[in-house]
Amino acid sequence: MKDEIIKILQKTVEPLGIAAISVALDFPENAEHGDYTSNVAMTNAKRLGLKPVELATKIVADFDKLVNKSSLKGLIKSVAVAGPGFINFTLTAEAVSKNVQEISKELNGSEGSKGQISNIGAGKKVLIEYSSPNIAKPFTVGHLRSTIIGDSIARILSATGYSVIRDNHLGDWGTQFGKLLVAIEKWGDEFGGLDGIKKSENPIKILVDLYVKFHDEVAIMEDSEDEKLKTEAEELVTLARVKSKILESGKDPIISEIWKVCVDLSMHEFALIYKRLGVSFDPKRGDTQIGESFFVTPYKINPVRDALNAKNLLKDSEGAKVVFFGSEDPKLWKLPPLIVEKSDGTSIYATRDLAADLYRINTYGKGLILINEVGAEQNLYFKQLIETETMLGWFTKGQRLHIAHGLYRFKDGKMSTRKGKVIWLGDILDEAVTRASKINADSANDVAVAAIKFNDLKRDSIQDIVFDWDEMMNMTGDSGPYLQYSCVRARAVVEKAKGLGISADTSGARPNIPQLDLLERYLLRFTHTVEFAGASYKPNVIANYLINLASLFNSFYAQVTIADKDSVTGAGSQDSGAAYKVAVTQVFADVLERGLDLLGIKVPEKM
RNA sequence: GCCCUCGUAGUGAAAUGGAUAUCACACCAGUCUUCGGAACUGAUGUUGGGGGUUCGAAUCCCUCCGAGGGCACCA
């Protein structure tokens, strides 16, 4: 219906010399301003030498004539000029009601397209890389953000018609492994060597402790007055580089074996966490979990070097190979240079990322939209990477994106694995489940996960989050559990009504209360909200919508009696429209459940 | 030093350049003999400072202040 109004409005303003493409409808914030609003008069008045209100009045008059000849006849209650020159469109209650039912039908639609909310992404393929934890390092709240936000964006894009590939790009390579290898060799015996670590209760914890120990010991030695110790620190760091190089060469079976054990242990750990979070990378759906190590073979790296050389982009600088942006003269840099090959000839993350992206283009086709959901601290790096890939002609503008999120911080600073200053995700989940089960034991895990996810997704993701247990575990107000509860309650009310012989039906009387008008009109925004969230890659748009929706429903619910026994038998006077109320409650529950699903939040059967 | 991001009630957040800046928590005053009260109604209180662009600015531009992040072989 919105599209039809736009079409007629376009026809109305065309004779005035206003481009059809500039005509759009907004949702007014204030309900008194109707269902849709247009600012076309204000944006064009000056150019046409008219006052905005005059122009708007003329448009309204012409619009009325056209509407009466269209299929919209009788569905628009009023078209009015308001304020500085807005044109406000108000639908009739019948039109709103009809549209609400259509949303419900779409959500419960035919099996094949069930839950499909829009098809704006039809025919487009998008690969989204997110989560990407590092092997042998803790899965922390830091990775949590990428996992939650990335998963939600994937769900939203999928629901709006995109073909979506989820890619968990595991950090299973790099110099960090050299450090770990040295640490295992030097101090691993305390834990019974590699076998002992494998068999221990929490092997990852030990590996991380060893990694932290490496940094601690090196720092202590570097700070000491003893020259001998200082030299030893240097030697340890060098040794780590050497180990990492040997690993990359694949020539030492023992080192490669240790690496393999670490990868397996970590993958096992990650799988458990993803299961708890309700996040999945499913090969059957086309998802992948390919680690960086997959891209270090010459077979994958060489084509990248060739492509860079073909465009003459690869330059020597201080022993390493780099890409310059704009100029080699530091004063004229558009961006600082990007190191693509280290001076010892081994790969660096940029090399592996380039190889990965080339592989993706070759696998999924050149039209692929490629998104990395990664922390904002890597902004500069992604600018460099995307710029390089654009120069290579791999992507056009808007096809290669970095979606950045702010980081979790403590009140007194950044988290750091190296300094052992982290909060493990497992601990957070445990704490959340403990708190949730105090309120409701049956669905404690669902509720706990909802609290954690919603606390993240309700914000614009670029904002930093100061870690706070109470904030994170919030289960009242604008929280995940509150929305879960609202949905469960609405479902229960519908069930109860059914038991009393009232089923959802909008053909009968419609209660004439303002709270219902507001609720129905807000339900109509669902499709647009999801599309907008997808187009801007912002799950928080949906989170906010759901909070407002639940609030409107509660206001409505407080005003009516839906399934009171008296009302069924006719004893009560407030029974008119009971079937209609049930129908709206049902649509509310459907929309809420679908919306929560887009945020990766599951609604339990009972709460 | 250079570059990027963010500054909105006491707190945490929202707002496609649009109309009276929205929501939650907290605080205050109320409602209802609870169809699922994790409810509802009302009150108090907010765009860091200063310029500019615009019919219209929390939003865009400049500048100052504050916070965070990044800047060569970590990812």
Strand-helix topology:
Blueprint (H helix, E strand, L loop, with lengths): L1 H12 L22 E3 L1 H9 L3 H16 L8 E7 L3 E6 L1 H15 L17 E5 L11 H19 L3 E5 L7 H13 L5 H7 L3 H21 L3 H23 L3 H25 L20 H13 L3 E4 L2 E6 L9 E7 L7 H16 L4 E7 L3 H13 L8 E6 L2 E3 L2 E2 L10 H15 L4 H14 L7 E2 L2 H4 L7 H20 L14 H10 L2 H11 L2 H21 L5 H5 L8 H21 L9
Parallel strand pairs: 4-5, 4-9, 9-10, 11-13
Antiparallel strand pairs: 1-3, 2-3, 6-7, 7-8, 11-12
Helix pairs in contact: 1-3, 2-3, 4-18, 4-22, 6-8, 6-9, 8-9, 11-12, 14-15, 17-22, 18-20, 19-20, 20-22
The chain binds one RNA strand of 75 nucleotides through helix 2, helix 6, strand 8, helix 13 and helix 17.
Description:
It is a single chain. The chain is an alpha/beta fold and 607 residues long. It starts with a helix and ends in a 9-residue tail after the last helix. The radius of gyration is 29 Å and the shape is globular. Strands 5-4-9-10 form a 4-stranded parallel beta sheet, sandwiched between helices. Helix content is 53%, strand content 10%. Helix 6 (175-187) crosses helix 8 (203-223). It folds into 3 domains: 2-91, Arginyl tRNA synthetase N-terminal domain (Gyrase A, domain 2, 2-Layer Sandwich); 175-410, Rossmann fold; 480-598, Isoleucyl-tRNA Synthetase, Domain 1 (Orthogonal Bundle), CATH 1.10.730. The chain has 22 helices and 13 strands. It binds one RNA strand of 75 nucleotides through helix 2, helix 6, strand 8, helix 13 and helix 17.
